[in-house]
Specification:
Layout lengths: L1 E3 L2 E3 L5 H6 L4 E13 L4 E6 L4 E6 L16 E10 L7 E12 L18 H6 L1 H4 L3 H23 L3 E2 L5 E2 L11 E4 L2 E5 L4 H11 L1 E9 L12 E10 L4 H22 L1 H7 L11 E3 H8 L10 H15 L3 E5 L12 E2 L2 E5 L1 E6 L2 E8 L4 H11 L7 H8 L5 E7 H9 L20
Parallel strand pairs: 5-7, 8-12, 14-15
Antiparallel strand pairs: 1-2, 3-4, 3-6, 4-5, 6-7, 9-11, 10-11, 12-13, 13-20, 15-18, 16-17, 18-19, 19-20
């Protein structure tokens, strides 16, 4: 406990703090999660930033009464810790003092202290700041934190440099109509669809880079799997042999992330009943092999949502794996920076990773040769002058390189078996939600 000008800096409470205090006294700050009045005493459930701790108020043992103490009040308590196997985490605090730090002006509009929040998604999002006080709701974002932390830990250990690229850009990385446009001091600008141009640029001087940041897509979707703002987990790496190097790096990274979650987030995994997969080797099929598996004719150029579901079912049945790579997509459905397949220029050295029936990753090898990139732009009907800044990285030399982008919310959604991607976004942004 540090002291600055006579004031205590209260650190985040942990279960280890409770264990260490057994047979002694502890002080902590928390929110009153629930009051359960019994004959002769009252259970006061205390919600900290991660846990709900059981305390008990007995008249005569506590210096103060429970007058003014209600659900949603923020308090500082002092009490005696004893082992109690019936309580959560096996310990209970007998209150000796309770001080109200802040009292709510109104009752919660949702049943925050119930085992299940029990409201529709629309109601949840309308009262998001209250809904997220429910232990299960906020646990989703602890898991999300764990995915990000595990991703960052792995990337740094593999000598990737973390970057922070601009989100206000002059040109769109993906092209198309799904761009949020804005005026930037009289100039036309867009919100970044991807850090693609910048992470490729950074490969020229860092070799390996990664970024964790928002990306923006102006798609008028109203589905369970799309957001207009989401968090991208991106990496780009130089000196690759081909796109399989990128796929192998992703496999190792996901393996690390899952182990990281098991090690550091067992509390949330148990609470949510999450099924964290064991990741060994991930099977891979080409796009046209995937169509053969699906029993479809080779006259389509992308996978639809039901295709993704069926391919994951196939991977589970044939390989015991809940993930599957689909590679070598038709080039016309892939971005202009995707490398053509040497054996068949109509295909791209590009892949998707599907997990539990949903695409969570798009990646591949990028074009590094200046002349090759110019020719592909011509094929796509894009004027080189529109991308002069981007093309400078090719003009002045680039190593063979590739990378990928993962949708954080999609990954968390599938890890936790959520029905709607909005449940994996703190404050989702879609066609109908701009507040809170």
């Amino acid at each position: 406990m540090q002291k600055i000008e006579g004031r205590s800096l209260v650190s985040e409470f942990t279960i280890d703090d409770l264990k260490k205090a057994e047979g002694g006294r502890i002080s902590l700050c928390a929110c009153v999660h629930k009051l359960r009045r019994m004959s002769g005493f009252t259970f006061v459930l205390l919600r900290t930033g991660r846990y709900v701790i059981q305390s008990v108020y007995v008249p005569g043992l506590c210096e103060k009464t429970l007058q003014g103490v209600c659900e949603g009040a923020y308090v500082e308590i002092t009490g005696d810790v004893k082992e109690e196997k019936r309580a959560a985490y096996g310990y209970e605090i007998t209150l000796r003092d309770i001080e109200i730090l802040s009292a709510p002006a109104a009752e919660y509009p949702l049943h925050v202290s119930d085992r299940v929040l029990g409201c529709t998604l629309d109601t949840n999002l309308a009262y998001r700041s209250v809904a997220l006080r429910h232990p299960h709701e906020r646990a989703v974002f602890r898991i999300q934190e764990g995915v990000v932390s595990g991703f960052r830990e792995f990337m740094l250990a593999e000598n990737f440099t973390e970057i922070h690229s601009p989100k206000i850009c002059a040109a769109a990385a993906e092209g198309g109509a799904n761009i949020f446009k804005l005026k930037y001091f009289g100039q036309d600008a867009v919100l970044a669809q991807s850090p693609q141009f910048y992470k490729q640029t950074c490969v020229a001087f860092f070799d390996r880079v990664f970024e964790i940041a928002p990306v923006y897509r102006a798609e008028k979707h109203n589905s369970t799997r799309h957001l207009n703002e989401y968090i991208g987990l991106d990496f780009e790496m130089g000196f690759i042999k081909d796109m399989t190097d990128v796929m192998q790096m992703e496999t190792a990274m996901l393996r690390h992330v899952m182990e990281y979650l098991k090690k550091n987030y067992s509390h949330e995994i148990e609470m949510l009943g999450a099924d964290i997969p064991e990741i060994g080797e991930i099977p891979a099929v080409t796009f046209f092999e995937a169509l053969d598996i699906l029993g479809k004719e080779r006259n389509q150029f992308d996978l639809d949502p039901m295709d993704e579901v069926k391919l994951c079912e196939y991977a589970k049945a044939e390989y015991g794996c809940e993930l599957i790579f689909v590679t070598k997509f038709p080039g016309q459905k892939r971005p202009f920076y995707a490398m053509d397949t040497p054996e068949d220029p109509k295909l791209a050295e590009s892949f998707d990773l599907l997990f539990r029936g949903l695409e969570i990753t798009t990646g591949g090898q990028r074009i590094h040769d200046y002349d090759m990139q110019l020719k592909k732009l011509e094929r796509y009907g894009i004027e080189p002058e529109e991308l002069e800044s981007y093309l400078s990285i090719h003009k002045y030399g680039m190593p063979p390189h590739g990378g990928l982008g993962i949708g954080l919310e999609r990954l968390v959604m599938k890890l936790l078996g959520l029905e709607n991607i909005r449940q994996a976004s703190l404050f989702p942004r879609d066609m109908h939600h701009l507040i809170p």
